[in-house]
Amino acid sequence: LPKGWVQIGLTADHKTATQTRDRWGLAQDMDRGVAFRYTRTWLRVDQGFSRRIRLYAHAPMVRAALSRGGETAVMTTALGDVRGGFWVQPWLDTRVRAAVQVELKAPSGVEWPGASTGGAGNTSSFLTGTGTTDLNIALHGQMGLGGAGRLRAQAGYDARLPGVVGYIVEVDGQANGWLNPGDVWRLRLDGTAQLGSDVALTAGGTARFVGWYRSGTSGPSVWRADLYEIPSSYGNFVDVDGRVSYEPDPHFEVAASAAY
């Protein structure tokens, strides 16, 4: 086997929500003093199997909490959906590079909102995973600008497979709840400027084209699952983000990022 390298990283991201969506998929404000906080801490293991192939596995630990008036009402801490895959770089060029990425997302997170049904008032835990499997493929391109920085582009397709999930229930029976997430097309562009030898500034944007989500039920007396479109689940979305990183040593980096 070729000699390679291993990189182990620990990263975290956090978001706070003060809005929710109604049964029609429309955003509405939560009551005053109510907030939902969602934090993920990622263990990232990457292995350079050879100069052209990189393998990786990324596992998140999720903490989801709902607070009312500063006090935590419901909180769940558990493993999220684990992602694993590989990169293949067809040619090795120092200035212009290209790669193919294939990734599998496993439904390893918690998908049951509690033992009871009947609405949000009976929720005893939060989801830490989607309960469905994704198969993603992406094409990456990068062009170096000497010591000044680099430009990157990415185009990808996410095939999100349907499956039985624990958070869709039939209130009048014991049927299985199905979710078929909409497939996603992604396009991303970003650029990095090198500010001296230790600091880099990155800015970019991502466009996503999301298909319809469909849900339904199936059971012993149902030969097939009848899935229906979830209102307002289809759409086109654009996110912009920025990142500043400080790397005083090739083996150590501190970074801060924000997205909107």
Whole-number average pLDDT? 87
Number of helices: 0
The proportion of residues in beta strands is: over 45%
Order of SSEs, N→C? EEEEEEEEEEEEEEEEEE
Alpha carbon gyration radius: 21 Å
> Which structural class matches the secondary elements?
mainly beta
- Large-scale geometry: globular
Weakly predicted, low-confidence segments? none
Question: What portion of residues is helical?
Answer: under 10%
Strand count, sense and closure of the main sheet?
12 strands, antiparallel
Q: Roughly how many Å apart are the termini?
A: 43 Å
Overall strand count: 18
Provide the descriptors you would attach to this structure in a database record:
twelve-stranded antiparallel beta sheet; four-stranded antiparallel beta sheet; 18 strands; mainly beta; single chain; 260 residues; 62% strand
